[in-house]
Design goal:
Blueprint: H1 8-34, H2 38-62, H3 70-83, H4 85-97, H5 103-109, H6 112-129, H7 134-137, H8 139-164, H9 167-195, H10 199-226, H11 230-255, H12 260-289
Length: 293
């Protein structure tokens, strides 16, 4: 049966869809061939095969070959390798949602469009759910470490800034408090998992918590080692804390399909309130004890 000619707009959208499919096929295939975990490799290869199948269906209507985007392949491959496969895939899907492809409109001319769109959404979501990844399994430990460091260390730095008004002493105190806090949080996380009978994940949870805590400490203390004015250093530390909150809130919102604005807003407000309280306490301590450095 001869196919009816498609409209220029439908053809334009099909070519966009083709490029998206063949690009994602290349990304999934490359990831599948590079990662060591056999389970994840099979999952990614299955997605890659689906993308290639959809590309060939669109090709039947356009009658042309479409090259993948080398930049997109490079970008999302390394995002997935550095920040995790699930995050990379879901971030890529977000970009696909923003592409100028109206599957409902296409379905009026190409009945297969609706089926392919639904199949992609359902099948890829199902495959993503069975990916096994340490970065997501221990995301709670990472968030715990970051949250505690941002609240505790920022509060400590804010209080010491007004009490001591000496960047080197504040930095030294912050580093000591940060290392002690990281060790304390790691050991608490380890013992918590052991008490729940999760001996296998206890050490990994402790490591992820400690590393996340130290990462936040480095960001917060660094301004005190760069700037001579303690109040400028504090302002930069606050900006750094907001930046860190932005990064991990965005990561979680993409990887775990959670609302970004709510999480980001809550953490910024919490850190700000704690910082202001600590700043005020530092001022009172300085006045009460007559500290002059």
């Amino acid at each position: 049966m001869e196919r009816k000619p498609i409209s220029p707009e439908a053809r334009r959208q099909l070519i966009i869809a083709q490029r998206s499919e063949i690009t994602e096929h290349a990304i999934y295939h490359r990831l599948a061939s590079k990662i060591k975990d056999e389970h994840n490799s099979r999952v990614l290869q299955a997605i890659a095969e689906d993308e290639l199948k959809h590309y060939k269906i669109w090709q039947k209507y356009t009658g042309r070959e479409v090259s993948p985007s080398r930049w997109e392949i490079f970008k999302f491959y390394w995002i997935a390798r550095i920040f995790g496969i699930t995050f990379g895939i879901k971030l890529m899907e977000k970009g696909e949602e923003n592409a100028q492809i109206n599957y409902n409109q296409l379905a009026k001319e190409i009945p297969e469009a609706a089926t392919i769109s639904q199949e992609e959404n359902d099948h890829e979501e199902e495959l993503i759910k069975i990916l096994k990844e340490d970065k997501l399994e221990y995301i709670g430990s990472i968030v715990l470490g970051l949250n505690d460091a941002l609240v505790e260390i920022l509060g400590t730095l804010a209080g010491l800034t007004f009490a001591l008004q000496n960047t080197k002493i504040v930095a030294l105190t912050g580093i000591i408090a940060g290392i002690a806090g990281a060790l304390s949080m790691s050991s608490s996380e380890y013992l918590s998992h052991r008490s729940e009978g999760n001996d296998e994940g206890a050490l990994k949870s402790a490591v992820f918590t400690g590393i996340a805590y130290l990462f936040a400490v480095v960001f917060l203390v660094a301004p005190y080692l760069i700037f001579t004015s303690p109040f400028v250093a504090l302002a930069v530390a606050v900006a750094d804390s907001i930046f860190v909150v932005f990064l991990y809130s965005y990561y979680i919102s993409i990887a775990n399909d959670q609302p970004f604005r709510k999480r980001f807003g809550e953490m910024v407000v919490l850190s700000t309130v704690v910082g202001l309280i600590s700043f005020g306490l530092g001022y009172l301590v300085r006045i009460a004890f007559g500290i002059e450095l």
